[in-house]
Amino acid sequence: MEFTTTEQGMVVLLEPGDEVLESLATVRDAADVTGGFFTGIGAVDRATLGHYDTDTEEYTEETFEGQFEVTAFSGNVGPDKIHAHIQLAKRDFSTIGGHCSGARVSGTFEILLVPSGTTLEHELDERTGLDVFDLSE
């Protein structure tokens, strides 16, 4: 993994075998980013996807293995959390996607991390059971 800092944020290049979320956490910490948003594309051979059921307030997760093009990867970072969503294209051009709790790079993966200018810490929202931004100062 390598990254460089620009006026707009950090440009991140991941290599085969890199874990996407762990690498993003490394960049966040090294660049001292306390809040930001990211987008990316690439290829992975393993991804763990989640779906949140608002009725039961529980995630179900499933790990997928194979050759996938990452057609969308986005989310936010804070000092306490990385929240990512991912869409994967299969060889037959069908797609799967959801909350991303893990992914391993198979070819390359390119990410742009843009600092938000404010700290994005999370707190539990009792109504939904989800960790959401705490924007109260």
UniProtKB/TrEMBL annotation:
Where the record annotates domain PPC, the positions are 3-136
Q: Which Pfam families match?
A: PCC
What InterPro entries does the entry give? PPC_dom
PROSITE patterns noted in UniProt = PPC
Q: Which PANTHER family match?
A: DNA-BINDING PROTEIN, PROTEIN, PUTATIVE-RELATED
State what protein this is by name: PPC domain-containing protein
